[in-house]
């Protein structure tokens, strides 16, 4: 069974089904007992809460009737005249006797105590986790539905203060982890709702500074100082002045690197990819770390190519897919040209008459006097050939097939003419 007061007053059975706990005054009796658990609540306190200073003549009997009905709802299988085990009678009043885990307020209190111990010990990640776990117990405004009841106003104010202090402790732990950017929306809203709360304002300014908004952080502290001096005639807390000085000096200790182990890093929208994922993003490409090892003099001066920066801005899968499409289209175009030119005459670039060489031809016909290129590897003193593409060179050991003098080691710039 579970009792909830950090929101609407609700009771859930063992299966998680909400129970019908009756009208407003009957629910108020149960809420008073849950808030005080495991301590008992006196009958006089219940009467004063329900009817303030003018209780009816049968107020005590009415309270006893409410308690009897609640016991039937909470323990439907209890034998008549058997002692109740949930809402029990104590000298002078009533109490709910269940483990602290059965109350949302009890679970929140245990998590807060653990989180604050971890915060004092310097375990910021553990503290933030416990404090955020406590905040999850809130399902809205505490004691929702009783806001206008005099007995509930003090309890609601106490629970609101408790929640605000938990938020401050959690923000302190998360700022130590470098998660200020994710905290900006929540802290900005709370500072606007509680403008005179100095610790909350300091945390908001710290979060703004971690988000790269130094001017906004200083403006937030300046506004707090103006409110304190102008409305209350008080000087700001020395810790606020110290934080302002550190922000002006851009103290690096205010911006620790974000710790990715804490769950809030994803809430902050941290798009982190490890090195292995970055390498595997380029599908089908071998690592090319050497090309990045020594930057060019132009890159060292801070300049970069517009084309290179534009290409690096594209996703890796787009760059890889585009290269693959270009390779396929180039191969298909080369095959088509080779088929069209499979007859006599010059062959396309990248082929040779016997299929053994891979030298591009010049544009001259065999036997033409226009063939004036030297053989690969020949010296400048070697006379130019004029026999065209039909001969082979001769060495002292005999004729040796060599690439024709018309073939060059670089591809021709124009289309071959037949």
Please outline the helices and strands.
Elements: E1 2-4, E2 10-12, H1 24-36, E3 41-42, H2 43-51, H3 59-74, E4 87-90, E5 93-96, H4 104-121, H5 124-135, H6 150-176, H7 180-193, H8 198-210, H9 214-232, H10 238-248, H11 264-267, H12 275-281, H13 297-300, H14 306-313, H15 316-340, E6 394-395, E7 398-399
Helix pairs in contact: 1-3, 4-5, 4-6, 5-6, 6-8, 7-8, 8-9, 8-10, 9-10
Name the features.
mainly alpha, Arc Repressor Mutant, subunit A, Serine Threonine Protein Phosphatase 5, Tetratricopeptide repeat, 15 helices, 7 strands, extended, disordered C terminus
TL;DR of this structure?
By secondary structure, this protein is mostly helical. The chain has helices at residues 24-36, 43-51, 59-74, 104-121, 124-135, 150-176, 180-193, 198-210, 214-232, 238-248, 264-267, 275-281, 297-300, 306-313, 316-340, and strands at residues 2-4, 10-12, 41-42, 87-90, 93-96, 394-395, 398-399. It is extended and about 85 Å long.
Explained architecture:
- It is a single chain.
- The relative contact order is 0.06.
- Among the domains are: 99 residues, Arc Repressor Mutant, subunit A; 74 residues; 87 residues, Alpha Horseshoe (Serine Threonine Protein Phosphatase 5, Tetratricopeptide repeat), CATH 1.25.40.
- It contains 15 helices and seven strands.
- 48% of the residues lie in helices and 5% in strands.
- It is extended and about 85 Å long.
- Helix 4 runs antiparallel to helix 5, helix 6 runs parallel beside helix 8 and helix 9 runs antiparallel to helix 10.
- The longest helix has 27 residues.
- A hairpin with a 2-residue loop joins strand 6 and strand 7.
- The strands form three sheets. The protein has a three-stranded antiparallel β-sheet with strand order 3-5-4. Strands 1-2 form a two-stranded antiparallel ribbon.
- The C terminus is likely disordered.
- With 418 residues, the protein is mostly helical.
């Amino acid at each position: 069974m579970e009792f909830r007061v950090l929101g609407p007053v609700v009771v859930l059975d063992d299966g998680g089904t909400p129970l019908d706990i009756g009208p407003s005054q009957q629910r108020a009796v149960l809420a008073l007992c849950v808030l005080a658990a495991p301590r008992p609540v006196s009958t006089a306190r219940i009467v004063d809460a329900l009817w303030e200073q003018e209780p009816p003549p049968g107020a005590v009997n009415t309270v006893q009737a409410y308690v009897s009905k609640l016991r039937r709802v909470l323990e439907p299988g209890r034998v008549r005249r058997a002692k109740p085990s949930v809402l029990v009678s104590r000298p002078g009043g009533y109490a709910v006797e269940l483990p602290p885990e059965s109350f949302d307020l009890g679970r929140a209190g245990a998590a807060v105590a653990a989180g604050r111990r971890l915060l004092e010990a310097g375990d910021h990640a553990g503290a933030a986790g416990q404090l955020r776990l406590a905040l999850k117990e809130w399902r809205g405004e505490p004691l929702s539905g009783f806001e206008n009841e005099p007995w509930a106003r003090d309890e609601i104010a106490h629970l609101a203060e408790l929640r605000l202090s938990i938020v401050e402790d959690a923000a302190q732990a998360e700022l130590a982890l470098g998660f200020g950017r994710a905290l900006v929306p929540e802290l900005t809203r709370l500072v606007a709702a509680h403008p005179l709360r100095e610790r909350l304002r300091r945390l908001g300014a710290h979060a703004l500074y971690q988000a790269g908004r130094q001017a906004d952080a200083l403006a937030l502290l300046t506004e707090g100082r103006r409110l304190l001096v102008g409305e209350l005639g008080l000087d700001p807390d020395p810790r606020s002045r110290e934080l302002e000085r550190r922000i002006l000096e851009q103290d690096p200790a205010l911006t620790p690197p974000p710790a990715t182990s804490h769950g809030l890093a994803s809430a902050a929208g941290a798009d982190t990819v490890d090195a292995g994922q970055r390498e595997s993003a380029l599908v089908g490409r071998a690592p090319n770390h050497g090309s990045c090892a020594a930057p060019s003099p132009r890159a060292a001066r801070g300049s970069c190519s517009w084309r290179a920066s534009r290409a690096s801005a594209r996703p890796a899968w787009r760059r890889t897919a585009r290269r693959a499409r270009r390779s396929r289209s180039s191969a298909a175009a080369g095959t088509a040209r080779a088929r069209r030119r499979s007859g006599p005459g010059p062959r396309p670039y990248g082929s040779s008459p016997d299929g053994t060489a891979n030298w591009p031809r010049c544009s001259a016909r065999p036997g033409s006097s226009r063939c004036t290129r030297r053989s690969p590897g020949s010296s400048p003193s070697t006379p130019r050939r004029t026999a065209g593409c039909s001969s082979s060179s001769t060495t002292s050991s005999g004729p040796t097939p060599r690439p024709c003098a018309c073939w060059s080691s670089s591809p021709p710039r124009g289309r071959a003419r037949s």
